[in-house]
């Protein structure tokens, strides 16, 4: 049952545990995870042995965590599909997987207890975001192997909300069902929320006249500028969710009403921030690569999983009263970063400039090409429907991008609707360097 919190409803008393108690819970669960790996996951047991860990008691405190070996997506692919199981295959009740766009999919698996923990985490995070029993949730995340659809579905049902499992696609139908079924909560990726907003507008609906109150968005990096665009287009409060299938799916971290970072569910996941180059921990509050360790997973326990995601941690007290640390400054994956003429550029940097400048719609993509000795970067974007002079807008955006990134970036204004729309994660980068010549 939900428990009352200082400024809003809370699902679980664990959300406000004193830090000392929370860290004691995490240490006990870390030792249990180590025991599970030593007992049932040969690959992980060998790595722990190489690090001098042969028994759970060898972990004396959470300060020993940085001495444990990393796990990576390459390890999951090398042991595809079930090589990292820590339980018998017959104990699995569900399998999810990544798309496998760049090779074999990353397979993740769940015992019945894993699904129960994930459902509780989703109920906790969705309650924190503002979902209440009886609300109608329009779930436009993809179902199937993608974890987003079923994750939010399970959490919504556990809370006692009414879940509409629309999934992705058939965008005109999305607009129809949003209106007719009276959804108060929209669940989707941020980029698809804008596609749905356009479909609503095309149908003649006024977002201010729909019951929509909340948007729960994740699955891809997005900026405060895009949050503002979504909130204006749909007349709701947009809330950020973070997760990855290797941990459970969505439910690893989420925003509270204070919207001052995403609370990490530290009783289920230990989080670190490291230098993506040398793998060493960075000073508190410093940006780096996020690393997570599962603390309660039975089927697929993972130690120090390198996410590739860039962010930082904030541990100052939150106005909501929750004691768990917060993720801030999330700006995409380290391997999404482009290096153009020696300059590092994240797609989120470009989005921040485009949406903060005014005159550009929130639909864009970065084209990287090499026609000569140097890489060239072009930003294709659609102009907003507010009558800006195209030449002046282009020149202004190019100057702002140069000021912000230190790189000369060409801006190409394209016809509205010409940037491909996505039902899931938006494709922001088209790298043509590999196919040139």
What does this structure look like?
The strands form 5 sheets. The chain has an 11-stranded mixed beta sheet with strand order 6-5-7-8-9-10-11-15-14-13-12, sandwiched between helices. The protein has a 4-stranded mixed beta sheet with strand order 20-19-18-21. With 437 residues, it is α/β, with parallel strands linked by helices. The longest helix is centred in the N-terminal third of the chain and has 22 residues, at 19-40. The chain has 10 helices and 21 strands. Helix 1 packs across helix 2 (42-50), helix 6 (171-181) crosses helix 7 and helix 9 packs across helix 10. The relative contact order is 0.12. It has helices at residues 19-40, 42-50, 73-78, 112-129, 147-159, 171-181, 190-202, 224-234, 347-357, 390-405, and strands at residues 3-4, 9-10, 94-97, 107-110, 136-139, 162-164, 185-188, 214-217, 237-244, 249-255, 262-264, 269-274, 288-294, 305-314, 326-328, 338-340, 343-345, 360-369, 376-383, 410-413, 429-431.
């Amino acid at each position: 049952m939900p428990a009352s919190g200082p400024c809003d409803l809370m699902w679980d008393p664990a959300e406000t545990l004193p830090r000392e108690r929370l860290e004691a819970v995490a240490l006990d669960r870390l030792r249990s995870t180590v025991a599970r790996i030593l007992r049932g996951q040969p690959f992980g047991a060998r790595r722990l042995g190489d690090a001098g860990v042969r028994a759970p008691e060898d972990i004396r405190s959470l300060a020993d965590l940085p001495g444990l070996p990393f796990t990576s997506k390459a390890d999951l692919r090398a042991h595809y599909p079930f090589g990292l199981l820590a339980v018998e295959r017959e104990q699995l009740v569900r399998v999810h997987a990544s798309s496998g766009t760049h090779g074999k999919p990353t397979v993740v698996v769940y015992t019945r207890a894993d699904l129960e923990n994930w459902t509780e985490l989703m109920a906790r995070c969705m309650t924190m975001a503002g979902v209440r029993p009886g609300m109608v949730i329009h779930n436009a995340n993809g179902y199937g192997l993608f974890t987003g659809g079923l994750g939010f579905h399970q959490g919504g049902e556990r809370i006692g909300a009414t879940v509409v499992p629309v999934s992705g696609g058939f965008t005109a139908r999305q607009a129809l069902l949003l209106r007719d079924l009276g959804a108060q909560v929209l669940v989707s990726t941020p980029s698809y929320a804008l596609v749905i907003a356009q479909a609503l507008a095309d149908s003649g609906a006024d977002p201010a006249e729909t019951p929509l109150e909340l948007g729960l968005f994740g699955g891809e990096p997005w900026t405060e500028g895009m949050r503002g665009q979504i909130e204006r287009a749909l007349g709701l409060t947009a809330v950020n969710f973070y997760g990855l299938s290797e941990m459970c799916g969505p439910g690893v971290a989420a925003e509270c009403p204070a919207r001052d970072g995403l609370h990490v569910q530290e009783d289920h996941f230990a989080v670190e921030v490291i230098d993506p180059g040398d793998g060493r921990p960075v000073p508190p509050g410093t940006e780096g690569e996020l690393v997570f360790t599962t603390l309660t997973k039975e089927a697929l326990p993972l130690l120090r999983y390198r996410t590739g995601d860039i962010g930082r941690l904030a541990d100052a007290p939150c106005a909501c009263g929750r004691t768990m640390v917060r993720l801030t400054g999330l700006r995409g994956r380290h391997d999404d970063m482009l290096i153009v003429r020696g300059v590092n550029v994240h797609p989120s940097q470009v989005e921040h400039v485009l949406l903060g400048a005014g005159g550009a719609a929130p639909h864009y993509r970065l084209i990287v090409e090499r026609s000569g000795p140097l890489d060239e970067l072009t930003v294709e974007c659609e102009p907003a429907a507010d009558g800006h002079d195209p030449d002046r807008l282009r020149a202004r955006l190019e100057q702002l991008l140069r000021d912000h990134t230190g790189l000369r970036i060409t801006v190409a204004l394209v016809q509205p609707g010409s940037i491909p729309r996505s039902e899931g994660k938006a494709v922001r980068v088209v790298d043509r360097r590999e196919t040139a010549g």
